[in-house]
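Re: the request from the purification team.
They wanted to know what the chain is likely to look like in 3D before they choose a buffer screen. I agreed to run a prediction and write the result into the notebook, where they can find it.
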Amino acid sequence: MFRLIAALILMSMPIVSFAEEPSTQEVKKTPEGLTEQTLTTPPPGERDAESRDEAPEKIKPVKEIIVTSKRETQPSKTVIDVETAQPVGSPQNIMELLSGQSMLDYRGKTSLVPDDDTYYLRGFGAERFATSIDGMTIRKTGGRKSSHVVDYGLLPPWLIERVEILPGPHSALYPGKAIGGVINFITRTPHTFKTLKPDISLSAGYGSYNTQIYNAVVNGAVQSFIYDLGFQRYSTNGNMRQSDAAVNNFYGRIGGVFPRDGFLTASHAYSRADRAIPVNNNLAAMQGDPLALFNPDYPLVFNSEFNNWQNPTWDKIANTTRLNFCQPTPYGTIRATGYYSKENRDRRYPAYINRNNPPAGVYDASWETIFWQYGGRVEYEITYKDEHTTTAAFDFEKLEDGCGRAPSYSLMAYRKKERVGILAGALQHRWSISKLMDLTAGLRYEDVTILVSNFTTSGYKLYITGKPTWIRRHWAGVIPKSFVTFKFDKVAEWMRDTSVSVGVSRIWHAPDYHGMYNPQGRPAGAWLNNEDGAGYDFILMRRIWRDITFQARYYLYDIKEYIAHNSAFSLFSGKNAPAGLECMDYVTNLARVHRHGMELNLHGEIIDGLSFHTSYSYQEFRYKGKSYTDRLTAKVELDGQARHHFKAGLRYLLEYTNTAFMADYGYESEQAYMNPVEIATDTYVFYATRINPYHLLDIAIEQTILKDKYYFRNLKIKLYIKNILNDIYQDSQGYQMPGHTFGGEISMKF
């Protein structure tokens, strides 16, 4: 493969010489729908490129086009440009820039502490939607008292150039777990600089609860050799009792830029995160626990598994190395990426030896899990006759984990073990059949192997009688995908800039996540089937005026063998379970589940400098089977999410004073959790725990003090207030979120 890549690079070199570079072009649609094209200066990284010595003639721009929109909506995806995004606060991680998308639901303990897997996409958690970097899915085996698949706190915004959100399971280029869709982070494209002077960005912010954030980023190049350096420090005291955090992110990248906009880069990211776990803070927690104390200075917390004397923490050190390659050739574009990552989750806390007898003493109940993961992806894309684009891709991933520090266990279960192996191939073709119709169709083959642990880590006893210590399971499937768009520009004048799209794709998902195949250590994966079914999307898009675009989506997921946790109703997980059938229903496959949803999006620029976005989503799970036991499980597993979400934002730039006003509004409807209580054999009463709806309003003002002056590209100061209504609300897990918070940020680029 490396020889092939090298040969293609050499083949491409004579075609474009090093001294030649095409002019940068910008294209903008006018209100009349015509295409306006002008020659402009290059982007900021190459802003002095027009003074190249080798340029025989300087081309002056005919007209300058200023682009104020920060998002682009297509029928199959939404693209958000990070550089032009205008967040109200000082975002710690890239996901905070996506807060205007109602299909994304934040479900963390607090908005002040970056955590893992705190976002849901179309109502699905991290095990049923894909988060990717340059098309390569981020994975870990996960689990261990948390889903712990993607830690968003390790992804500062300056790592990313743009974000692609692909709702629904309609791309063959992404894994079967992408039922809810894909969030693909595209890293910054390497480019050359005219001079040796690098671009430097610095920022510092301070807010309520002693929240501090510092960023420093350097991007530069020496001829075709490029380099990037980045550092972020984030810390907060948190709004709850023992909810402080400190996160340090370091990043470095080197590489080379090839002819035809090709490149090869190697990067390494190092992160150290120290995070406390919020503890109970209520009078009831003191009952039966002589060491527990109540502190009225902090909000009430009822749902934590810890009390204050335990001082629980979960810390992390993460290292990730990535290679990224791209080379256009006369015969198509080759892209390849690969990574290796090591990450841990170190939970430290003491616990009572006997909860019912506290005087018996305490012991060190700490547990550290280490995660190793590596993978690679090769993609070849070729466009021919302007109407056809074919993409072939192959990717693989290996996920391993093992025990680190666990002093309470004298006999360690294992040090390092491959738990998940995934091989996949994809073939996708996009065909512009006519000016009225586009069709994208593809096939994905996915092969998944998992290793299920069948023993207790404390006593090394088997859970399932007659089964081996490690149970190997294997699934493989072919997954067809399709997405078609009908455009009505040529049908009638009043239907210009209007389209209707339909996506129909197979859903296929193996239990490739620790929380499914080994929840709480139980070998549930020994009995599970893969999820199967179909996903349907129906989309209407229309440009209303200027660049104001309206989009309406309705989607339906028909999922068979839906994997659901069933510990509350399990009949085979206790001491009286039949031999050989232990843990058979600890996690179960529900016969059939429907996921309904609707999304409405409206955004654009009203007048020069005044832009807005609104987003509404409705989502609901429905169990469609007939089993009484499965119906009980579905009542607990499928409830607990708000059905209505509404997001809106307004941005106004006073260009003559360089002052920007920003406002964001969010609404989330009531949530209800169903708690089953068995009052007789197989007879249950459900009690609802309700979380009230809430409204959030954030505002900010940003002043550009210097712009292209005194060596500054810009110097800005921002002041903001979040939750200005001081709405006292809880999120999905029942923890009280911060009230109104204040903050400010100073940033500069030069």
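For the purification team: Confidence is low (pLDDT under 50) at residues 1-69.
Please add any questions underneath this entry.
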